[in-house]
Design a protein that fits this description.
Elements (H helix, E strand, L loop, with lengths): L33 H21 L6 E5 L6 E5 H14 L16 E2 L1 H16 L14
Parallel strand pairs: 1-3
Antiparallel strand pairs: 1-2
Helix pairs in contact: 1-2, 1-3
């Protein structure tokens, strides 16, 4: 089992991205700072929660507004997880392109996923924060 999607061009001499990750490039990326690394680790942890909560109701992944091309990019859970792990390991994001004809109804933003998770947490927490011996509300 792979943590990341398999590269369909792996070993193909006609790979259209063959030169993009050339280790001989002069522009060596700066390693992630401790803060950036922690942010990526937190994103990975959040992603696990979001997938556990949202996949059962039909959400296939997250949509992210690309800063470079100003278009929404739709990522399924595994692809986004793989991209974050790649960033964590290599210090640079993967080359990306928009998904082919995704159904936007099956994707949500990070903010929506975060709000949904917070709502579930708050709902599950209700009543557990009462002090011992305090009267409980009746309905």
């Amino acid at each position: 089992m792979h943590d990341e999607p398999i590269d369909p061009f792996n070993g193909d001499p006609a790979d259209p991205t063959a030169g993009l990750d050339d280790p001989g490039d002069d522009a060596t990326p700066d390693p992630l700072t401790d803060v950036e690394r922690q942010d990526v680790l937190e994103d990975l942890a959040d992603l696990e929660i979001y997938q556990a909560l949202l996949a059962p109701i039909g959400v296939r992944g997250l949509v992210i507004e690309c800063e470079d091309c100003r278009e929404p990019h739709y990522f399924d859970w595994d692809l986004l997880r793989g991209n974050l792990r790649h960033l964590l390991n290599s210090g640079r994001p993967r080359v990306h392109e928009p998904a082919y004809d995704p159904d936007p109804d099956h994707y949500v933003t990070w903010d929506y996923a975060r709000g949904y998770a917070d709502g579930v947490h708050d709902t599950l927490s209700e009543g557990t924060e009462d002090e011992p011996g305090a009267p409980t509300a009746t309905r």
